[in-house]
Amino acid sequence: MQTTTNPIKINKQKKSYIDKADALRNNNEFQDAISFYLNAILIDRENPKSFYGLGICYKNIGNYDKAIKYFQKASELDKYYFEAFYETGICNLLRGYPGESIRNFVQAIQINPDSPEAILQLGMSHELCDEPEMSLMIYQKLIENTPSFTKAYEHKSSLLMKMDMFKEASIVLNQLLKVDPEYANAFAGIGICFDKLGKTAEAQRYYRKFLASQPFSKQATFIKTRLDKLKNKKLQNSNLSLV
User: Fold this and answer.
1) Is 126 exposed, middle or buried (0-12, 13-18, 19+ CB in 10 A)?
2) Can you tell me the distance from the alpha carbon of 110 to that of 24, in angstroms, rounded to the nearest whole number?
3) Within its chain, how far is the Cα of 165 from the centroid?
4) % pLDDT > 90, the chain
5) Higher pLDDT, 34 or 237
6) At how many degrees (to 10) do helices 30-43 and 48-60 cross?
7) Where do the structural domains in the chain lie, given as residue ranges?
8) Mean pLDDT across the chain, nearest whole number?
9) pLDDT at 5 (0 to 100)
10) What are the counts of helices (DSSP H) followed by strands (DSSP E) for the chain?
11) Distance between CA 30 and CA 36 in Å, rounded?
12) Residue 139 burial by CB count (10 A; 0-12/13-18/19+): exposed, middle or buried?
């Protein structure tokens, strides 16, 4: 007698595998989750979510090549799968291929133009490709379109500082403080900018603001050391002027 496959039972089994895999992945049990995703794929090779979940697992255990393979499969099955394109870009960044990640993030942004994280990653990819002007333009557009997105100010100011454009960087960091007056790293950044520009009094003022808000942070040791050097330098100059 010919037997027929029960589609309802198969769908329930597939859902059970995916649900179990998702739960394991969310609990950071990536190796165990992989087995359940593979079982789900054995039942249905047309479900992009199974391939996406598999990609996330491989990404988290550091196998970026396999992760990309499964993210690409997910995006082939669903050409509007924003997360699959985005995660492919992240993996390409992690394996040191920012040129390829640019293409991935552009694809992601075409699907979801309002994703500040994807736009930020696009700017970072251009930065790693030694295209600072393009990065600055992207960060500025991100600031204009999403003024509450603090990461855009931070990345733009950091890039300006790398380019020795300390005055411009301090302006961006002041804009950041208008968005979030308690953003401690902005105090440190402005202090460093003024320090580099030779504006000692202003540098000391912002260094103190940073230490008042983040006295035990990793950066605090450097700021304290630099503040002491500026104080000693001022004291030495004062003593010399009295001679």
Assistant:
1) buried
2) 31
3) 23
4) 88
5) 34
6) 160
7) 14-130
8) 93
9) 60
10) 13, 0
11) 10
12) buried
Q: What is the pLDDT of residues 39-55, one digit of tens each?
A: 999 999 999 999 999 99
Joined tokens for residue 61: 């255990």
Please give the distance of CA 17 from its chain centroid, rounded to a whole number. Answer: 31
Task: Write the CB contacts of 101 (distance below 8 Å, at least 6 apart in sequence).
Answer: 88, 89, 90, 92, 93, 121, 125
What's the rounded Cα separation, in Å, for the pair 12 and 239?
83
In terms of DSSP H, where are the helices of 95-165? 98-111, 116-128, 132-145, 150-162
The HSE-up count of residue 131 (CA atoms within 13 Å, CB side) is: 14
Length of the chain equals 243
What is the number of other CB atoms lying within 10 angstroms of the CB of residue 82? 17
What letter represents residue 38's amino acid? L
Query: What is 14-130's CATH superfamily?
Result: Tetratricopeptide repeat domain (1.25.40.10)
